[in-house]
Amino acid sequence: MVLATMGSSEEVQERELYSYIVKDGAQKSVNRITCNDAGETQPRVKYVTNDGGMFLAAWKQSEYKKGELTDSYLALQGYQKDGSANAVSMKDSGEVTENFDFAKGGDTISDTAVYWQSAGDDSKMHTYVKYMNAKTGTLSMQYEITGTASANEMLVGGSVVVDGDRFTTVSCAQTSTQSETTKDTDLTQTKDEEQPARLITGTKTIQNELSEVSADTFGQNVEQNSTINVTLSFANAGRKAMDSVTVKQSGTTVADALPIHLESGERGQVSFSYTLGNTLQNETFEVTADNGATAKAQLTLLGTDMVLGNPEVVENLQGGERIVQVVISNAGTKALTEDDTIRVALTSVDKKAVTVKPTTAGASFDEDKKLIVISGKDAMEAINRGEYVLQFNYTPKFTSEAKNVSISLQATAYNGSAAAEELNLIDNTAAFSIVKPSKQYDRPLTFTSVIEDGKFKALDVYNRYEKKVARTIIVSNGIETKKINVTLGAEEGKTYDVGMDATPDVSYEMEGDDPVVIPTPEPEDDPNVTPSPSGEPTQNPVATVKPTKRPVVKPTKRPVPTQTVKPTHTPLVRPTVKPSDKPKKAAPKIVVGKARFLSVKNKASKKLVISMKVVARANGYCVQYSTNKKFKKAKTKLTKKRKLTIKKLKKKKTYYIRVRAYRLDEKGKKIFGPYSKTKKIKIKK
């Protein structure tokens, strides 16, 4: 008989495991080990016949660092009859809970299992088991035994018996019902009444099988009659280890005895070459492991591939509303039709902050599901061409703690109510963030003076901050002074009447603040300026404040001085404006988005056909190619289209290709964007 107990040592946070063998009525102490911080469970002990007889002791082990719990796991140690620890040592990943025990039955280590009870994903109580694997020093994957408690029941007690690959469990399920409620304080207390228990039995036979099986080509160019590299991923869900798998398609072996060693619960991958037929279609492979496990894996070759570009904030509107723009394209092998729809899901830290009004044809917004739905023949065709630009209005709601608001988008193609087969789930998501204006700007208010016929008629004031601002502005022309009480909501602009002569002594300041210069009125911003994809506007928000219909600057027959600051004590030099002077339009900053490939294919002899994804407002594309990966002696081709054919290439040579978009400035000069990722392709035809 094997006995064990847990006792306290002299140190508070340590427990000691005492193990005994009782033979012929005599007690013999066989070992005493210290289990640091393991006092939350008593050890469980089991005797096995390995090596002439030994016992296994298991307990829940915890580790602490600076008083904080850093790890908690099941520790298992083997001991000889004489009390010495042997080489049998195992550690669980942490799934086994404190109410574990050894299953009854199983005379050897390999037939020994532990079981425990815990809530599953369905919130019901389940019984789980794991086998021992002394060779790897780990426990097997987790298996669930059938027979569960209902949602309002708890499992009370229970026992599990193991017989080879078969488990049987018996436990009691007890319902707790609320019978009394007291309200002596603000807190509600409940008292539960025990109910009669019901008996639950369950069984589980462990079979050698594969789970989580999938097949993928990982972005390769897929064409009829081409040879592709297929990668199979799977987990060994059986007890026995595996050392190889054989792959068949419609009964024909396509890869024989691919080497891979996986213990129970381990995951891995194998790869093999596969030649496609005349018709492109989804392929199904039968996978058989050398331990007898079988499974089927589907390789999706005919499907959509939704790609989202980088979202951009293209304009700020009154009240903090933004216009966001994103390009949506289909890079898959299956074209979208008028029967299909695209659902763009929006998520954020605060989903209530998402209120969008699509402005693009074919797009509508589902307020309940927080989805943008795109439909219609024209929209689907534009997405297939990679030319669909989705624009929607979005008003961020900034919290006091957050420095920005982050939004992510995910596009999924649907045919009716079912999601379409998707070739690549990487490019169908995109994200952007909008920095809180009060974290972005030092001052909340910006000003633009309105001067007409020698009169300082009005002052356009814009609040850049996301919160209400109330300030008093003191305006003076050296003869008279006027106070303007400004009250503006979040990111709001208004025009306030001034009504005084525009003398050389015009100045202003805000009460309780340093003097601030009234900038010379500027013309409208170039509408072709593309903002940065970070969500931060590239132009000063002053440009979004719409002036009145009266002209902002109108030269008169006599010189009109430009307004200047009049600090409290320091005089200023005041530049004047000549009647012949015209307001100069600042050269707009042109930002060009990053280009990306749609496909690069060697379709014909010594030719490459290259397709690029659309870049918003691009005038053309620059393709560079070379046989050197550092692009030494590279050749360059310019095109205004998104498709380009490169001829007279060398057969059996590997080429490196990259692309960048360009826009033309007001003088016709090309402004280039960043290069795409480099594509590598071998000319086989």
What is the total domain count?
Answer: 5
Number of helices: 2
Q: Oligomeric form of this entry?
A: single chain
Largest sheet: 6 strands, antiparallel
Share in helix: under 10%
Uncertain stretches of 5 or more adjacent residues? 9-13, 178-190, 514-586
What's the gist of this structure?
The protein folds into 5 domains: 2-205; 210-299, Immunoglobulin-like (Sandwich), CATH 2.60.40; 316-435, Immunoglobulin-like (Sandwich); 441-577, no CATH class; 597-682, Immunoglobulins (Immunoglobulin-like, Sandwich), CATH 2.60.40.
Can you describe what's shown?
The chain is mainly β. It has five domains: 2-205; 210-299, Immunoglobulin-like (Sandwich), CATH 2.60.40; 316-435, Immunoglobulin-like (Sandwich); 441-577, no CATH class; 597-682, Immunoglobulin-like, CATH 2.60.40. The protein contains two helices and 49 strands. The strands form 13 sheets. Strands 26, 28, 29, 31, 32 and 33 form a six-stranded antiparallel beta sheet that branches. Strand 47 (654-664) and strand 48 (670-672) form a beta hairpin. The radius of gyration is 37 Å and the shape is extended. Residues 9-13, 178-190 and 514-586 have low confidence and may be disordered.
Keywords for this entry:
single chain, 685 residues, mainly beta, Immunoglobulin-like, 5 domains, 6-stranded antiparallel sheet, 49 strands
Topology:
Elements: E1 2-8, E2 14-23, E3 26-36, E4 44-48, E5 54-65, E6 68-80, E7 85-91, E8 101-102, E9 113-119, E10 125-133, E11 138-139, E12 143-145, E13 153-163, E14 166-182, E15 189-205, E16 210-216, E17 227-236, E18 242-249, E19 252-262, E20 267-275, E21 283-289, E22 294-299, E23 306-308, E24 312-316, E25 322-330, E26 340-348, E27 356-358, E28 363-366, E29 371-374, H1 377-385, E30 388-394, E31 404-415, E32 418-419, E33 429-435, H2 437-440, E34 445-452, E35 455-463, E36 469-476, E37 481-488, E38 493-501, E39 507-510, E40 560-561, E41 576-577, E42 597-601, E43 608-612, E44 620-626, E45 635-639, E46 643-646, E47 654-664, E48 670-672, E49 679-682
Antiparallel strand pairs: 1-2, 2-3, 4-5, 5-6, 6-7, 8-9, 9-10, 10-11, 10-12, 13-14, 14-15, 16-17, 17-20, 18-19, 18-21, 21-22, 23-25, 24-25, 25-30, 26-29, 26-31, 27-30, 28-29, 31-32, 31-33, 34-35, 35-38, 36-37, 36-39, 40-41, 42-43, 43-46, 44-45, 44-47, 47-48, 47-49
